[in-house]
Amino acid sequence: MTKHEIPGIVVGRLPIYLRAIQRMAQEGQRVTSSKELGERLGVSAAQIRKDLSQFGEFGKQGTGYNIKYLSEQLRRILNLNVVWDMAIIGAGDVGSALAHYSGFRDRGFQATMIFDNDSEKIGKKMGGLVVQDIANMIEVIRQAKVKVAMVATPADHAQEVTEQLVEAGVEAILNYAPIQISVPEGVRVEYIDPATHLQKMSYYLE
Fold first, then answer.
1. Edge-to-edge strands of the sheet including 64-66?
2. Are 73 and 88 contained in the same domain?
3. Which residues of 107-139 are buried (b: 16+ CB within 10 A; e: fewer)?
4. Is the domain of 51 the same as that of 121?
5. Do 9 and 94 fall within a single domain?
């Protein structure tokens, strides 16, 4: 099965498995099982075994998974054996928070540039990054060969910014703007909209 034939929902669970086993490693644990991992995550052991089997054999029946080895293999599958540079588009509240967040690098990513169109923000530092003029974004991203970007602009600018990112060669976009964006085939988009998740949970409130 090729990379593009693996269901996205399966790929989406791999980082969750990786986070859990890395936590186990920090606790000094060396071996785990699909049962134990499933109990930590609220996922069935059968589902974990089925997901991992899409990519190969990583454990042995009766002995479980070597945590160090499984972690290395998941990082390889997720292309996290390198640190990916990222561009942040939008230096408002969300963009500023992303620029100051220090947890990306330990998980395979680092923000290396931030852009905005506000003249009062351009040239100022945010989390060690200097805010650059969005007018220069395509050229700067293209020269740096950055493949990952986070869109933290207002909704009415998100599509235009996305099209510029695609032109610059970006292939993966994490969209914080509360709007669906259109991208050509070959460009991946993931959405983070806290209000949508809150609305989903509010359905269950009394």
1. 31-32, 64-66, 59-60
2. no
3. ebbebbbbbbbeeebbeeebeebebbebeebbe
4. no
5. no
Q: Which residues span the domain enclosing 165? A: 84-197
Which pLDDT value is given to residue 139?
98
From the list 146, 202, 152, 205, the residue with the least C-alpha distance to 181 is 152
* Per-residue tokens: 166: 């695609």
For residue range 133-187, list pLDDT tens digits in order.
999 999 999 999 999 999 999 999 999 999 999 999 999 999 999 999 999 999 9
Which CATH number belongs to the domain containing residue 12 in this structure?
Answer: 1.10.10.10
The answer to whether residue 67 sits within a structural domain is yes
Quick one: pLDDT at residue 1? 56
Q: Are residues 50 and 133 in the same domain?
A: no
**Residue 172, C-beta contacts closer than 8 angstroms, at least 6 positions apart:** 147, 148, 149, 187, 188, 189, 190
